[in-house]
């Protein structure tokens, strides 16, 4: 699905964001996704394309929850080789993202018990908050 990038997918990306190298599985189906790592932490992003939308041409709620999972789970990464699984994801939908809009998200660790982390997160478009919530994630050993 994401092999044929449109102009906005391949050229209209804000400075500092790089394409996530997900070339297989579910991440490939919901992409392309981008990320930026800087002094403020990890921010992930995507542009709402037609394959992300519902019948109203807004980002589908399932896409927004998938994106929240990827953003908030990223908060537990200590490096690019950290693997984690989602235990719980709670989302509050506050606004919609329209076709063509650039959506960003990030999370912050607010609790930890051994390898289990609680994260608070936010998804936004410009100054508009789209979604907030919490996630619980477990860091796991990488599979070969």
TrEMBL record:
Q: Where is the Thioesterase domain?
A: 58-130
Q: Which Pfam family is one of this chain's hits?
A: 4HBT
Identify the InterPro entries for this entry: HotDog_dom_sf, Thioestr_dom
Segments traversing the membrane: none
- This chain belongs to the protein called Thioesterase
Species whose genome carries this gene: Henriciella pelagia
């Amino acid at each position: 699905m994401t092999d044929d990038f449109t102009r906005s997918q391949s050229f209209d990306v804000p400075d500092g964001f790089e394409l996530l190298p997900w070339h297989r599985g579910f991440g490939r189906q919901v992409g392309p996704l981008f990320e930026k790592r800087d002094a403020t932490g990890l921010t992930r992003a995507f542009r709402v394309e037609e394959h992300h939308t519902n019948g109203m041409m807004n980002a589908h709620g399932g896409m927004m929850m998938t994106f929240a999972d990827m953003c908030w789970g990223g908060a537990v990464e200590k490096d690019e080789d950290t693997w984690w699984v989602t235990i719980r994801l709670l989302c509050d939908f506050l606004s919609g993202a329209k076709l063509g809009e650039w959506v960003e998200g990030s999370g912050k660790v607010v609790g930890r018990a051994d390898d289990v982390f609680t994260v608070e997160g936010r998804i936004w478009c410009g100054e508009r908050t789209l979604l907030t919530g919490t996630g619980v994630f477990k860091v796991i050993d990488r599979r070969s």
